[in-house]
Amino acid sequence: MNYIEYLKFSAQSILQSTYVYDHARSAERLTDHLPINKEVGPYLASHDADLTALSACYLFISIEMQAAFNVSKTGRYDQSPAAPNGRIPLELDLLPTLEGSRVTPYVAKTAIVEQFELLKKYLIYVNAPYNVKMLEKSREILDVDIFDKMERLILRRNELTHEIDAPMASMKNAVEYFYSCRWLATFFHENSP
User: Fold this and answer.
1) How far apart are CA 72 and CA 66, in angstroms?
2) What share of the chain is helix, strand, coil (3-state, %, to 5)?
3) What does the alpha-carbon distance between residue 117 and residue 158 come to, in Å, rounded to a whole number?
4) Span 81-121, pLDDT tens digits
């Protein structure tokens, strides 16, 4: 992937991630039935009426979420678990939360991992190190600041990809990670033969 392609795809990726996050988080906030701080987005609004936690909004799940829930509980996509009172709670409390959101940790994590994978394609193109082993071999030829930035990016991606209990990422972390990846790509674009 050349530099121009990298810039295009990394921008497309982070914009898609933040768009999905804004939609998912604003819907999550509305269905939490808690007061919404309108000084901090994202949140849903309407010209017709002010949408608030009192608007009685509920999430009707998709066929895909129902199938995932069924498989996780019964081992079969087409068989729901037995419901003693006719309703089966999704047990969303089991999902990790960050600052009251179950959406944030997942969207931020996938955004960071995808940003690294796009950067990696570009680093391969310019013959730059893209993993810990290659980076260590390049220690003597890379500026200390460049080495440190690359190491932080690689280690964070590895942590999010391979460690079950890795510290959760926020969307702010994801956008900062995107910026760091772009900065490194620009550095290698300007300094590679």
Assistant:
1) 10
2) 60, 0, 40
3) 11
4) 877 776 676 777 778 889 889 999 999 999 999 999 999 99
